[in-house]
Write a structure and sequence with these properties.
- The chain is an alpha/beta fold and 469 residues long.
- It has two domains: 4-244 and 447-468, Aldehyde Dehydrogenase, Chain A, domain 1; 248-429, Aldehyde Dehydrogenase, Chain A, domain 2, CATH 3.40.309.
- Helix content is 40%, strand content 20%.
- It contains 16 helices and 20 strands.
- The protein has helices at 4-11, 38-57, 60-76, 78-89, 98-114, 149-162, 176-186, 202-210, 223-233, 258-270, 290-302, 322-337, 370-373, 389-396, 412-419, 454-460, and strands at residues 18-22, 29-34, 120-124, 129-136, 139-143, 166-170, 195-197, 216-220, 239-243, 248-252, 280-286, 341-344, 360-363, 380-386, 401-402, 404-408, 426-429, 444-445, 448-449, 462-468.
- A seven-stranded mixed β-sheet has the order 12-13-14-11-10-16-17, sandwiched between helices. Strands 7-6-5-8-9-19 form a six-stranded mixed β-sheet, sandwiched between helices. Strands 3-4-20 form a three-stranded antiparallel β-sheet.
- Helix 1 packs across helix 7 (176-186), helix 5 packs parallel to helix 6 and helix 8 packs across helix 9.
Length: 469
């Protein structure tokens, strides 16, 4: 275990190309992140190519042991990692935020290490014997976002390493320190060169997508960037896992208990201050209980403290960057201009330091309003009234994205029937965004393709080989 200062010093630079990382809650400097170049990327890929064959040759058991030790290392440095994450990303230490994210890192790494993937016998009739095995791809490129920088990096690298690959990681320019620190801790238990973070700009990411030595790209981020990666990767026919933008719908059926579901609805929408791909971003509520749901949600929102992440009292933080703050401001302003009713929030304090946007609930809003039709990715939830379930399903399915969705009801069977009609990769019942390392996760439509987590996630970072005979 390193102290916070020692961990930060190990990943920052005093000279050479650097980027000053600022705390989005205070504007204070967190540290100097290295600005790596394409030349640094080439060196990382060469090191990965050199380290990967020996790592693959160790076999599943030895690799899993190393990853379990790496998970223990994360736990030993958990508080230092959480403090850095809070300062850089802005999320509070408490609630489903910084400490939660670091804990999820070690938990997901252990899950990747211990999930079994046995050869599958597909024919054994006395004449033909055929088995499907899964072999390493080689070098995998992982490009991550700024909202859950540590956890999503683990989602990418844990299964990839378990299956015998080497990994080169390109973090978001907004949150490179968190990923550099996480890799620094994990690399205490891994062979040199196997896992490298290249903290570069878009040029580095673009080169990763086209590089002939990288056999697969794993990307979490916007649909626009995902499309660019698809085009760049085409010449080398890379395998891709793309978890892209979402605008998740929730449907509250008329038999739901507004008070009972209010807190679940709130955290489904406002986890990580709404900066989550699979967060609840538009809520459809039946007219019979519409006012009651609005009232219950407002009561929850009123008591959730927002502020600087290192203050132990807070559970909501700032938006991570000004660009996102401006998007949220534009969308809420458009809703207000249209005549929608703001139940709470919608009025950021211009004199407050940091990118804080207050917790905001917007009612009586049209389904075509930009706040509903576009992904806000912040602490705002539009609540849309509906009359029939068919109407709600039609509206929920109207967009070109399909990452997650949810149905809320006192009748689970009825909720499952509605869920089956929703166009989304995952539909939760009476919860939203509850990912599980055992359960496959991925989007449909323009929310991407490929699965993560569980056995399917391991298969996705390997190449199938059929041995027939």
């Amino acid at each position: 275990m390193e102290t916070y200062d020692a961990l930060l010093a190990s990943i920052t630079r005093d000279s050479g190309p650097t980027r000053t990382i600022l705390d989005p809650a205070t504007g204070e400097a967190v540290g100097e992140a290295p600005v790596h170049t394409v030349e640094n990327l080439e060196a990382a890929i060469s090191a990965a190519e050199a380290a990967q064959p020996a790592w693959a040759a160790l076999g599943h058991e030895a690799r899993s042991e190393a990853l379990l030790k790496a998970a223990d290392a994360i736990d030993r440095s958990a508080e230092e990692l959480a403090n850095l994450l809070s300062r850089e990303q802005g999320k509070p230490l408490n609630g489903p935020n910084a400490r939660f994210e670091v804990g999820a890192c070690s938990a997901w790494l252990r899950a990747a290490a211990t999930t079994e993937l046995e050869p599958q016998t597909v024919a054994d009739d006395g004449e033909t014997f055929a088995q499907v095995h899964y072999r390493p791809i080689g070098v995998i490129g992982a490009i991550g976002p700024w909202n859950w920088p540590m956890m999503i990096t683990i989602w990418q690298i844990g299964p990839a390493l378990r299956m015998g690959n080497a990994v080169v990681v390109k973090p978001s320019e907004y949150t490179p320190l968190s990923v550099l620190a996480l890799a620094q801790v994990i690399n205490q238990e891994l062979p040199a060169g196997l896992l490298t973070v290249v903290s570069g700009d878009r040029e580095v990411g673009a080169r990763m997508a086209e590089h002939p030595a990288i056999g697969k790209i794993m990307f979490t981020g916007s649909t626009t960037t995902g499309k660019a990666i698809i085009k760049s990767s085409a010449d080398s026919i890379k395998r891709l896992t793309l978890e892209l933008g979402g605008n998740d719908a929730g449907i509250v059926l008329p038999d739901a208990d507004p008070t009972a579901i209010a807190e679940g609805l709130f955290w489904g929408a406002f986890i990580n201050t709404g900066q989550t791909c699979a967060a609840l971003k538009r809520l459809y509520v039946h007219e019979d209980i519409y006012d009651d749901v609005c009232e219950a949600l407002t009561a929850i929102a009123e008591v959730m403290p927002m502020g600087v992440g290192l203050d132990e009292r807070n559970v909501l933080g700032p938006l991570q960057n000004k660009a996102q703050f401006d998007i949220v401001t534009r969308l809420v302003d458009s809703a207000k201009d249209s005549g929608a009713r703001v139940l709470i929030g919608g009025n950021p304090n211009p004199d407050q330091p940091g990118y804080f946007y207050p917790t905001t609930l917007v009612a009586d809003i049209d389904n075509e309003n930009p706040l509903v039709a576009e992904e806000q990715f912040g602490p705002v939830l539009p609540i849309i009234r509906y009359s029939t379930v068919d109407e709600a399903i039609t509206k929920a399915n109207a967009l070109e994205v399909g990452l997650g969705a949810s149905v809320w009801s006192s009748d689970v069977s009825a909720a499952r029937e509605v869920a089956a009609r929703i166009e989304a990769g995952t539909v939760w019942i009476n919860k939203h965004g509850a990912v599980d390392p055992r359960v496959p996760f991925g989007g449909i439509k323009q929310s991407g393709y490929g699965l993560e987590f569980g056995v399917e996630g391991l298969k996705a970072v390997a190449v199938p080989q059929v041995i027939n005979g």
